[in-house]
Amino acid sequence: MMNLERAQAPVAFLPDWLSLHAERRPGRVAIATEERSVTYAELHRAAKATAARLFALGVRPGQRVGVICHQGLMHALCLHALITLRAVMVPLNWRLSPAELAYQVEDCGADFVLCDEAAAPFAEQVASAAARRVPTIVVPREAWEGEGAIEGQPMREAAGDVSLTAVHAIVYTSGTTGRPKGAMITYQNHWYSAMASALQFGLDPEERWLVPMPLFHVGGMGVLMRSLIYGTTAVVHDRFDAEKVDCALASGEITLVSLVPTMLARLLKLRREPYPPQLRAILLGGAGCPRPVLERALELGLPVAQSYGLTETNTQVATIDLAHALRKMGSSGRPLANVRIAVQGPDGPTTAPGVEGEILVQGPTVFAGYYNRKEETERALAGGWLHTGDIGRLDEEGFLYVLDRRQDLIVSGGENIYPAEIESQLLALPGVMDAGVVGKPDDEWGQVPVAFVVMEAGTVLTDERSRAFREELRSRLAHYKVPVAFYQVDALPRTASGKLMRYEMRKWVMQG
Amino acid sequence: MMNLERAQAPVAFLPDWLSLHAERRPGRVAIATEERSVTYAELHRAAKATAARLFALGVRPGQRVGVICHQGLMHALCLHALITLRAVMVPLNWRLSPAELAYQVEDCGADFVLCDEAAAPFAEQVASAAARRVPTIVVPREAWEGEGAIEGQPMREAAGDVSLTAVHAIVYTSGTTGRPKGAMITYQNHWYSAMASALQFGLDPEERWLVPMPLFHVGGMGVLMRSLIYGTTAVVHDRFDAEKVDCALASGEITLVSLVPTMLARLLKLRREPYPPQLRAILLGGAGCPRPVLERALELGLPVAQSYGLTETNTQVATIDLAHALRKMGSSGRPLANVRIAVQGPDGPTTAPGVEGEILVQGPTVFAGYYNRKEETERALAGGWLHTGDIGRLDEEGFLYVLDRRQDLIVSGGENIYPAEIESQLLALPGVMDAGVVGKPDDEWGQVPVAFVVMEAGTVLTDERSRAFREELRSRLAHYKVPVAFYQVDALPRTASGKLMRYEMRKWVMQG
């Protein structure tokens, strides 16, 4: 008798979506921005022309290529040109400092950095800051016009189907240790994210998904990729403007929107009535939504859907149905299709209700590992589960409650801040003996970082010194990472083994 | 440097959909019939109770289990109970004769035959006709009530996630040779069919998909499985009644419907205006739709979508968009997501326009092979392509035109009839020296079989003899397979190697 279980190999390829849609629905809008809407045919043509240009300049399949674009439309063009070339995109967060980005560029061994005209000076700074000089390529706006950006250069066609397990992008995440690591996101991750989302929210063949979030994080990239897979429209706002987003949602032309809770809070200041029914869901990611914000949104009748996810799971792995939002306030919902969520219990992974422990995830949207970091990858994926570093519990109905979003992570306006990274910079400042950073609740940003420092004997942390510290840090770190306040203390709470107990410091913050 | 291509293993499991939906949307209707609607919670409970009953009677994971149900609701219950048990379902076409089904039961080594009360006498006939006596189990209607059908028997829970490549069902298809073969359909086949369909037609979270077709073919089974995967409603009509289907579609409560062209032709006799917009698509499968029927449907503004598929591809692999239906009249459309279609050209598989040859298919909905038929499986899947046996060509835009739906296949009212099978029965009749069967166009059924026979010297095929032949064949073959007419000829057209040229006989039919 045949072995029924082994009768079939799993599927290993996905189609080249862009050429598929360009052929089948050439006139449909692929990406809409305030400034311009481009159809699938236009996007395909521009991607092929840009791919030809990049190829002529030396970009090859499998190479890692950094991308820094201030304009969403140009970011999307780079993404598609790199898929066409089968090069690996490394989206770079331009809110970071040039030194921080230079580290990422070096770490992934990027061969090039692409940028749009707006980001060109900054990209140059990044490229120069890298130990190994990395060539930058400015992708001009003219790439959207004409047949090819380089005279006589033939269009470059995609290589056909793409391997399901091939790496599409490397997205940097600081992880719990504060050391940025490149998370490898595969095409399979995108495909299953798109399918899970369709199963969760349905799929309107005329979907228009608004993303006023940065495209360099998985949240923004996910909207671009899902719209691509569906052959629908990604509506991109280059920066979050509450009035513009409110206006777009009120127009009835948006069917789904991805937001971080801070953005929702700002929208609620403007909104007095529900949005039209075309808007099926407001996806909240990046951080847990403060209860008063969620309650206000539900009161207003907004279709909010709190989710849980991280870079290593390529966006959401759990989402709460609107039907349960009130009853399960504070929960991030249940796992999406094909995803398993468990908690690390005393005897291993468990879904038993009430057990508190590290949140574990299994499924097709879990990333392929950290680029060039075998050990960290093995640790993160030990035992076949992704170890998220977040603490949570499941209830008797399988709803996930995230108790501590990564042990020490500070989430500020949707950006992750890892205290260890800031602490290491603080320790380099003159007179600082020890330093600890934690988040402080903030109405506008969700959280903001504050620092506790131990100064050299006899040194006082004056206001003037604090200002100098802040200025110094601004030259080294992204603006949102610079602590909003510095407090001098005699000693920091540490365990016997010297590990910083940030939990204790958070108590100091809460006690004022 | 890491090998980026091999960084991730493809996904290997799927969730247990039924328990998932029973937990998350217990009150939603899973299956609606004229007689009764059952919710996901009810279906889950009944499936677990029935699984417990079957387990107590000896049904075990991996066993093949025949299913003969006249009532769709009972058929669906058997399907879910068998998934719960991880046994392989062998849906049996009760329009076949007991002898034909006994062959299938023997061929797949079925350990049991399940049936509903209505089909019990027939199932007994099948079981008795098998060389090795196969026990039949009647699944009672009471399985829908109470907690367990056997006193004190605990409910049987599904074994959790299911392997993507595990075989879900074995569906018999006669293939080109006329010898029925069991096509192994995997969970992966269903999953990708469901996703491809969502990408093609969108996915309404409140989908209600009407299936007035038999559930024992992949067309009907596909609707049950897709609705299961989506967590939406399958609306089952136990037999096609044009007025009832028309009424259902006109009610606005149906969002998708699967039909064979014959059914559409009958609907058109009743319909004078379009259906409400809730009906997004009328999927046509099983055979090419006659041009006048398609034209009339399009004139009326019906959202018809001609598709191409076969048992070995677990339903549709190509479907034509409504947008192209008129311009590409006669085409079955372009491949669905993840599917590749090519034509066997002189130098191998090609997508070059205009080349006529055997249609080849690749993709995740291609079946896992024929049960226990290594050689036929290897032939069917040679070179990594499914060899469909159908002849077709692609045009310059990638649209598929099926020129001959399997060389000799007769499609009558959605049922496949393989001439070779009928011919072998004809040859056993007294006085018949040679026989050939081909299809004749028929307004109602699409095609009906007619027979050309060579009689022994001096024997004339009188009307009386024809009637006797017909009666004899009715005892051996399904009713629809019995030729509607017998014509006596002096000789049949055969090649030098003796192969019957049915093409020539079809010309006789067309010339009257």
Automatic annotation (TrEMBL), chains A, B:
It comes from the Bacteria. One of its GO terms (molecular function) is ATP binding. It is an enzyme of class 6 (ligase). Pfam families: AMP-binding (PF00501), AMP-binding_C (PF13193). InterPro entries: AMP-bd_C (IPR025110), AMP-bd_C_sf (IPR045851), AMP-binding_CS (IPR020845), AMP-dep_synth/lig_dom (IPR000873), ANL_N_sf (IPR042099), ATP-dep_AMP-bd_enzyme (IPR050237), MenE (IPR010192). NCBIfam families: menE (TIGR01923). This is 2-succinylbenzoate--CoA ligase. The lineage of its organism: Bacteria, Bacillati, Bacillota, Bacilli, Bacillales.
